[in-house]
Amino acid sequence: MNYLAHIYLSGDSSRMRVGGFIADAVKGRIPEYYPSGIGAGIRLHRLIDDYIDHHPLVRGMVVLLNKEFGRYGCILPDLIFDHYLAKEFDKYSIVSLSSFSRRFYFDLILNYTYLPVRIRRFMWHFIATNRLCRYRTVEGMMESVGIMVEYRGLPFDVNKVREYFISNYDYFRNCFYSFFPDVMNYTNSIR
Question: N or C: which terminus of the chain has fewer CB atoms within 10 Å of its end residue's CB?
Answer without folding.
Answer: C
